[in-house]
Amino acid sequence: MFTSNHWGEWNDSQLLPTIQKLMKGYNRYLRPNFNAGPVEIGMSLDIASIDAISEINMDYTATIFLRQRWRDSRLIFPGNESVSVDGRLVSLLWIPDTFIPDSKRSFLHDVTVENRLIRIFSNGTVLYALRITATIACNMDLTKYPMDRQECTLQLESWGYNLQDVVFYWTRGNDSVRGLDTLRLAQYSVESYYTTVAEAVYETGHYPKLVLHFALRRNVLFFILETYVPSILLVVLSWVSFWISQSSVPARTCIGVTTVLTMTTLMMGARTSLPNANCFIKAIDVYLGICFTFIFGALLEYACAHFYTMQHQTIEEIHREILRELHESKGNGAIPIVSSTRPEVGPSARDEPPTEQSPTQEVVMNGEAKESSKGQGCGLSTVKHASRRAAAVFVVENPHNIDRHARTLFPTAFFFVNILYWLYYLCL
Predict the structure, then answer these.
(1) How many C-beta neighbours within 10 Å does residue 425 have?
(2) Among 84, 87, 239, 382, which one has the highest count of C-beta atoms within 10 angstroms of its own C-beta?
(3) Is 375 left (phi over 0), alpha (psi -120 to 50) or beta?
(4) What pLDDT is recorded for position 17?
C-alpha cells in the first residue's frame, strides 16, 4: 500500500489493482536501464494538417500526432495484453524530454482533456502519444517566387538526455510519417518527403536528433490568374495607342498614364504578402518590372513620335512660307526681302542686272561670310559642321513610321522576353 504523498492527488481506491502492482517501488525520476546503457526510443508521426505557411515570417503551423515507444523493464507484467491508462497518470511515469528545437510557438490540446495516450504492454513497452500544434521555422528561398520549391524540416531532439542516456530512431523508416501523401494545402502541394537520423551538437554534449524533410511545390496557377494575366493585358492595352492618330493627344496620353498607374498598383499589391527583404529579387518582381518597362516604353514612344511630328510640321511650314514669298516676289517682279541683306558693291556692280537666289543659298552665303570673318584657323566651322551632321541623324523624315515600326517591334520583343523568362524560371 502507498501513501497519499506518493500518488499525489490519487488514492488507492481510484487506481486499478494492476496499476498498483506495476507502480510499486517505481521511481519516475530515474530513466529505464539506469547505468545499463541508453534507452532506445522509437518515433512515429501523423501529420493531421498544415494550417498556414507564411513567407513573411518564414514558418509553418502544423498539427501532429507524436508517438514515442520505449521499453521500461520495471513495468513488465504477466500476460500478452496491454493496459491503457488515463493520460493524467503521466506524472507517475518516466517519459522522454522530447522537444522541437525550431518551434516558435506550440501547445498541447486539452479539449475535453489533455490529448495524451499512455499504453503499457506486458513486455514493459510504453506507448506515449500526444497531439501538438506547433509553429515551426522554415528557411525559404524566394528567388523563384511564385515558381519556387521550399524544403522544410521537422526536428525532434532530447532536451536533457545525451546520446549516452537516450537514442532516437524512426520506428519504420520513411513509413513512420503518415498524412503527407493525402494532405491538401491552399498554395502548395507536397512533392516528396524523407526521414533522417542525426545528432545535435551543443556545448553541453551530443544529443539524439530525428529530422523529417518534406518538399513543398507552390501552385503557380493562382498567381497566373491574379498577377501574370492582368499584367500581360495591361501591356497589350498600352499597344492600343499605336493605332490611334498622333493628333489625338488626350486619348494617347490617357492610355499611357492609366496603364502606368495601374501597373504600379499591381506591383505594390503583389508585394504585400512577401517579406520586405532586399536580398530577394523574386521572379514575380522581374516579370512585373518587364511589363512596367514595356508600358512605360509605349508612353515614351508617343512622346518621341509627337515631338518629331511637331518638328516635321514646323519644317514644312517654313518651306511653305519660303515658297510663298518666292512666288509673290516673282509675281511682283521684285527681289525677295531676304536678299536685301547682301553687302554693298561698287558702281560697276550696280549696273549689272540682279540675279535671284534661293533663301537656302542666301543663308549658306551669309553663314560662310560670317565664318570666314571670324577666322578659319580656330576650327569653329568644323565644330558647327559636325553638330549639324549629328543633328541630322535624329531627324525623322516621316514621323508616322514610328508608330508603324512600334506595332511590330513591341509585340515581338515582348514575346521573346516571355520565352526567355519562362524558360529560365521553369527549366533552370
Answers:
(1) 19
(2) 239
(3) left
(4) 52
